[in-house]
Amino acid sequence: LHTDLDPGSSKIKYILSGDGAGTIFVINDKTGDIHAMKRLDREEKAEYTLTAQAVDRDTNQPLEPPSEFIIKVQDINDNAPEFVEGPYHATVPEMSLVGTFVTKVTATDADDPVYGNSAKLVYSILEGQPYFSIEPHTAIIKTALPNMDREAKEEYFVVIQAKDMGGHMGGLSGTTTVTITLSDVNDNPPKFAQSLYHFSVMEDVALGEPIGRVKANDLDIGENAKSSYDIIEGDGMDIFEITTDAQTQDGIIRVRKPLDFETKKSYTLKVEAANIHIDPRFLSGGPFKDTATVKIVVEDADEPPVFSSPTYLLEVHENAALNSVLGQVTAHDPDVSSSPIRFSIDRHTDLERQFNINAEDGKITLATPLDRETSTWHNITIVATETRNHSQVSRVPVAIKVLDVNDNAPEFASEHEAFLCENGKPGQVIQIVSAVDKDDPKSGHYFLYSLLPEMVNNPNFTIKKNEDNTLSILAKHSGFSRQKQEVYLLPIVISDSGTPPMSSTGTLTIRVCGCSSDGTVQSCNAEAYVLPIGLSMGALIAILACIILLLVIVVLFVTLRRHKNEPLIIKDDEDVRENIIRYDDEGGGEEDTEAFDIATLQNPDGINGFLPRKDIKPDLQFMPRQGLAPVPNGVDVDEFINVRLHEADNDPTAPPYDSIQIYGYEGKGSAAGSLSSLESSTSDSDQNFDYLSEWGPRFKRLGELYSVGESDKET
């Protein structure tokens, strides 16, 4: 850089600022020469904008305005082409025509495409010929050979080169790989592995069971290899069927109808396999199908008996005689050996054992009487068993319909009771009755009604048959009276139209009642006439109930008053302390401390530990006892106890229940003997207590006490 103001003196100083100033670019402040201090890369930065200015070296004052200038980096071919998206993968259908588009590749060059040929690229194939070609400038890859077969080679590895400088010598280059896969088309027909297949099957095979598989191989894959199988010829087209296994593409042969070794022992089928998806371009190569022959041999099996009919229907009249034949079932062994058959009834279907069957000929007979009115149908199962192989069993249902016979007499549908008004008119319908019959004639029920012969000239009632098979009861006259006769009984004979006809007699009860003017029944009791006028039976019952209630109240009141006035003090002759209660239970001796719960003798009010005092105000003033001085030795204890007893018995303030008196003095002895107030009917002297020693250890102590007493007496 140089300014026109520079006279050649050293007073001017050049200053540089902007992109890269001081680092990449440095200026000589005296001469204005600019130097690049680093290697430049156009691909990193193509140009730099800098500002230069001349200033006074001493004062740093600008001598002229700053000037801006641009430094551009000139490109050289220092970058090779690159395939950024590589490596590539492409697919093209097999058998494609020459020139079929496969894919397009793209390379980039970082050099300047405008300046020179540094970025001008040319494409070529290094590997992959002669199968594929590439356009030099567009980089489009195409097929170069016709009829490339996937089944022969499926995958190709192609190397593509991109070279700059227009492909001339000295240019830089880059490469990439393209993996090209041939996709499948349906260009191969299915082909059976063998032309003849042999299978064998038992004649008792279940329907739908597979008996064999055939396979037509196809070199294609996926949808193009799928085939359908069909039976196109043979003597078993209606006996067998073939389906395709979706997983393995096998043809599965199954049985459609039952096989019979005795009828036909072998079958020959012609099976065809054809592609499902056909490519029309390759039809000229031949049909996409193949055929094979299948021979099936039926083998004999031990089969169960076969009944002549899948079901049987028998009819029998309900009055059929016992052991009469109702019908017959037949069965045979389909095998060549033809084993004899024995018949039986499955008793789970004939729990009441109403039927029997002849084991040899299959004739069904009646074992117990039938009643159609109880059960119209009987469904039993007949079992046929081979005598040579009891495991071969067949069953057949037999329906037995019980036919009706006229064995039930008709009777009234319900118990009828008719009501006749005293003010009824002659010819008035009293009651309409109907009949039922348990039988079921084919032509329907038709009943005949009549009166007993001795009632034909009945002066009171008559009957009339209605069109709906019912009967109307009519009154012959009026003026019926409850006082004369309250109830009439009218026997009616009911007959059916069966063969032979059955009949029964039903009695209709006709009650004479009092009715209102419009015919409404009000009262049917005869005692209504003998009751006083204006007082009905209901009123009398109500009055009687009130009287009884009053009597009950009076009795209760008197009883409560008497109970309230009873004295609370127990009389001498009723002193509970003098009562002896006998228990026949034998105690456990002195060792038994739990034989009796003393709590049952306690006052129930004192169970919780609190005894309420029941003080009674005495009618007479009782003088309190004077304190007794200690009893000297030698006093009469018997007299002392009697005095105390007399005081307790005559004390009105004493409680009305037993109390325990504690006596703290025990005498040395007494001529009176026992201190008990309960006298025994037998004295000790009359008894011998030696037997107590024989009662066991529990009575040992008691025996010793009594034995000591006896010894004292002797002393």
Identify the notable features of this structure and list them briefly.
Immunoglobulin-like; 715 residues; 4-stranded mixed beta sheet; 32% strand; mainly beta
Number of strands: 39
What proportion of the residues is helical, as a percent range? under 10%
Number of helices: 3
Largest beta-sheet details: 5 strands, mixed
Q: Quote the distance from N terminus to C terminus.
A: 173 Å
Radius of gyration, in angstroms, nearest whole number: 68 Å
> What share of residues are in beta strands?
25-35%
- Supply the CATH architecture of the domain at 411-523: Sandwich
From the spread of the alpha carbons, the general shape counts as: elongated
Rounded mean pLDDT is 81
Query: The CATH topology of the domain at 411-523 is what?
Result: Immunoglobulin-like
Q: CATH H-level name of the domain at 411-523... which superfamily?
A: Cadherins
Overall SS class = mainly beta
The CATH class label of the domain at 411-523 is Mainly Beta
- Give start-end ranges of low-pLDDT stretches: 526-534, 598-622, 624-629
In short:
The chain crosses the membrane at residues 529-558. GO terms for molecular function: beta-catenin binding; cadherin binding; calcium ion binding. 8% of the residues lie in helices and 32% in strands.
